[in-house]
Write a structure and sequence with these properties.
Two copies of one chain form a homodimer. By secondary structure, chain A is an alpha+beta fold. Chain A has nine helices and 22 strands. The first copy, chain A, folds into two domains: 246 residues, FAD/NAD(P)-binding domain (3-Layer(bba) Sandwich); 128 residues, D-Amino Acid Oxidase, subunit A, domain 2 (D-Amino Acid Oxidase, Chain A, domain 2, 2-Layer Sandwich), CATH 3.30.9.10. Chain A starts with 12 loop residues before the first strand and ends in an 11-residue tail after the last helix. In chain A, 52% of the residues are buried.
């Protein structure tokens, strides 16, 4: 493991290089070490573990059967089982997810009844506006950042090499240019040294930046998108036992005594979009305008959003946010891997990485290792 | 009529001020003069007729029954009838619209048969990829810019006042601040003089800028959106008799011996987005990336898009484009007017203005004139 440029790195060839140690790349690396210990493996991360600017750190960390794409329930359940134990402490907590609607849905019951044991959750809502509740008792919350950290650490324990603070640029013929970064005393990030390694297989798991990296480095056209999601806080009381709530696409996750909001992503952001704060009838906010509008539209049903507890901020830096990959440019597309050429594979998480990401990362590792079985599929 | 700041303007009060002389505002003004000649009316336009930066000038100018929202067919037909005659020469031309699909649709027939009389249209396509054609024989093409010009001129003939090169800022209590603009010899637009007029009713018909104008001037929150649409050219031969084609959301309108493309709008652009050119595997283009991706996805079905005739440009200024209002933030929402308070009404055209815009603008004029009948509705 090389964390900084003071540690000389002299390797020149690997069987597999994984670019990006978010949860997708880190878990893929861990699974590769388990399934194919003979393969020489390098995991490269531009930041630390987890990258402070990556999507993993700010992902909601909500697993719910509601989110499992049809036909992939077993793979989603396997992802949940990984989170619940084998990855070490990822702050996994079984917590029901309660989806609130104006109209009854299959299996729903009255909101006041479903949330009777959770007055702190009921207090956020107007049960008259959201009278129906559909409960997923199998849901859970966890820390995606801890998933990336633990998976990367286990990959290293199992024999992977790890380069931190290193930008990796895939190029033709399996060459990967590694730019080891350091920070000057004026806080400028500079390239300290450049090295080239050769890899038989390169996995590009760079999140929202992955598709552009493939296009620039390999000249491969892809049609994936990205979106900038902010996660504002709602400072109203929650407890260790509070359920996760969802209404109108907005997810409210109990966290640290309050609630962390995961706004819906409706569509991609255009190339060239620079996130900026919004304004509500002239008052500047750190929340982007589209998210503000969604929250305003929900204020009647979730009156707590209209109170002083919502962290609107005054400028963009006040509200945590990150770029998220959108596979196929769609907010509802599951995580995927895609062969770009004989050497390169793109691995994307995106909005459904919480529920299915580890299964997809495992699937790529198994494919690279030549293992036909999947642990979630019945034998035969 | 006041076209420039050299013409002194001293009026102080109107019954109705219409902000914006695109086709929506100009036609609303014309209808107001016809329905309520007693009302003193001022039409204000920031640019000329039509505004070179407005959505009207670059609108596709394609009327099709395919685009009429369910239940509003009569209003759409009335819009068509206005374009066909009463507005003077708007280059109206009856031209079938042929919607091409991979799967049969109700009433569709084989593409090769439907386009047998139009070899120049058939030559753009691969009929094996788009074997089915649904023809709208009632479709027509026209020049939206001429609609705005003719409607504004007729409003003036009928007694409206018209201020060009004037920015109008609605404020509280029916005050409208008029900023008369001139251009310095270094091509800078400056405010030459400011005047305030009072209006009993203000119609904000400023296109994509309308919702922001209402919010800034009146403190009213709206949830409308906007999108930046570019209209690249495809230089392949067309004739005066060529049909309009549509495939995968892309409209190809025969114009000036070639084809003008109207790409689909899938969703709003975020606030703060600054349009920029895209790049295709490293080659810079003037077309935005999202439009490029749509065209690339269509290249198998419409091989002409992959030839040298497509005007990709090298930078944004090479490809005509304009901001379009999206009512309710949705690309499929019809034009609308919306009361903001007792004095102000927002009038929005958007993607369906070609098919329904004049009906909606008439409806607002009739409402302001106190006329309950609509010309497209059966009496009684």
């Amino acid at each position: 493991m090389w964390a900084h440029v003071g540690q000389p790195f002299a390797e020149t060839a690997y069987d597999v290089v994984v670019v990006g140690a978010g949860r997708m790349g880190a878990f893929c690396a861990r699974e590769l070490r388990r399934l194919a210990p003979a393969l020489r493996l390098l995991l490269v991360e531009e930041g630390g573990l987890p990258n402070e600017e990556g999507a993993t750190l700010l992902a909601p960390g909500v697993w719910s059967a509601h989110d499992a794409p049809p036909g992939r329930e077993a793979e989603a359940a396997w992802t949940r089982a990984q989170l619940a134990g084998p990855l070490g402490d990822v702050q996994f907590r079984a917590a029901p997810l309660v989806r609130l609607t104006a109209q009854p849905t299959p299996g729903s019951r009255p909101t006041a009844e479903a949330l009777a044991a959770h007055p702190e959750a009921l207090a956020l809502l107007d049960p008259a506006a959201l009278p129906w509740a559909q409960v997923d008792p199998a849901a859970a919350t966890f820390r995606p950042g801890a998933v990336a950290l633990n998976a990367a650490q286990e990959a290293v324990r199992l024999g992977a090499d790890l380069l931190l603070n290193t930008r990796a640029c895939p190029g033709g013929g399996g060459e990967v240019t590694l730019e080891r970064l350091s920070v000057t005393n004026t806080h400028e990030v500079v390239v300290h040294e450049r090295r080239v390694v050769r890899a038989a297989q390169v996995v590009i798991a760079a999140g929202a930046a992955g598709a552009a990296l493939a296009e620039h480095g390999l000249g491969v056209h892809t049609a994936h998108g990205r979106a900038y999601r902010q996660s504002p806080r709602l400072e109203e009381p929650s407890t260790e036992a509070s359920p996760t709530l969802r209404a109108g696409g907005l997810t409210l996750r109990p966290q640290a005594g309050g609630w962390t909001l995961a706004p819906a992503i409706w569509h991609r952001d255009p190339q060239g979009y620079v996130p900026g704060g919004g304004a509500l009838t002239g008052v500047p906010t750190g929340l982007r305008r589209e998210t503000l509008e969604d929250l305003v539209a929900l204020m009647d049903a979730v009156p707590a959003l209209a109170g002083g507890g919502l962290g609107l901020g005054r400028s963009l830096s006040d509200v945590p946010g990150a770029w998220l990959a959108l596979p196929h440019g769609r907010p509802d597309a599951p995580p995927l891997w895609q062969r770009l050429d004989e050497t390169h594979t793109l691995l994307l998480g995106g909005p459904l990485a919480d529920v299915l990401g580890l299964g997809v990362a495992h699937g790529l590792a198994a494919a690279l290792a030549g293992v036909p079985e999947r642990p979630w599929a019945p034998a035969g």
